[in-house]
Amino acid sequence: MADITDIKSILYTEKTLGMQEDNVIVVQTSPRMTKTGLKEVFREYFGIIPTNINSLNQSGKVKRFRGVAGKQNDFKKFYVKLPEGAQIESLAV
């Protein structure tokens, strides 16, 4: 069962801001989130049924800190296409 707590953030980069003009938002989630789970979260919490969802597994980068190698957390990205005219209140500018 997917929950809204699995959504970590909405990504804001130059590329994703350009995609928002086409009603596509990019959501960063935990690796256990699925497309159907994300669709349920959008329907339940935002009242919007996405028209299309694409997913991407992103592995964490290997970084060094004070000479010790470490790894950042893995995450999943979803490209969510919203219906025409739909907006999420928290994203409204």
Key terms for this structure?
6 strands; 2 helices; four-stranded antiparallel beta sheet; 34% strand; 93 residues; two-stranded antiparallel ribbon; alpha+beta
What does it look like?
With 93 residues, the chain is α+β, with helices and mostly antiparallel strands. Helices cover 20% and strands 34% of the residues. The protein is built from two helices and six strands. It has helices at 14-20, 35-46; strands spanning 7-10, 24-29, 52-58, 62-65, 68-71, 75-81. It has a four-stranded antiparallel β-sheet with strand order 1-2-6-3. A hairpin with a 2-residue loop joins strand 4 and strand 5 (68-71). The radius of gyration is 15 Å and the shape is globular. The mean pLDDT is 89.
Give the secondary structure arrangement, pairings included.
Layout: E1 7-10, H1 14-20, E2 24-29, H2 35-46, E3 52-58, E4 62-65, E5 68-71, E6 75-81
Antiparallel strand pairs: 1-2, 2-6, 3-6, 4-5
Helix content: 10-25%
Spatial ordering of strands, largest sheet: 1-2-6-3
| Shape verdict | globular
The sequence of SSEs as H and E is: EHEHEEEE
Which class of secondary structure composition applies to the elements?
alpha+beta
Number of helices: 2
Question: Which regions contain 5 or more consecutive residues with pLDDT less than 50?
Answer: none
Taking all residues together, what is the mean pLDDT?
A: 89
**N-to-C CA distance:** 31 Å
Strand content: 25-35%
Q: Give the beta-strand count.
A: 6
Main β-sheet description: 4 strands, antiparallel
What is the rounded Rg? 15 Å
